[in-house]
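User: Run a structure prediction on this.
Assistant: Running it now.
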Amino acid sequence: MNRQHLLNIGIALLILLFTYTAISKIIDQYRFVFQMKLSPFFLVKSFAPLWGWFIPLTEILIVIGLCFEKTQKLTLYLSLGLLLAFEIYIVGMLMTGLKLPCACGGVIAFMSWKVHVLFNAFFITINTIAIALSKSESRQSS
């Protein structure tokens, strides 16, 4: 399998992830915001209604950006930033020891916090590999 195929697979996985999570958050937006209001973290709790729209809209913009070759590299960095922010939040939730539900949408919401860390780490790895592959692809085409 060549580098371009691996890059396309990584991008496709990220598109699936962000499409699924954005749609499930929008469909169940009330629950998403309500659960963020339960967060022990001031910035999450205080701005939950804002995050309730900002996060899924950002995920949709990431999906759109990943669909176009011209914007893929920048969007890969943006998606990595979002995934890292989620990972920091998840680790923070684990460290609190609270048994609060995850505010994520769909079946992802049913994961334990520990499984969520691993799930997110998997996509951080996919994203990082895609960035490395996109760099090598752009060097080869120059």
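The chain is about 80% helix and 0% strand.
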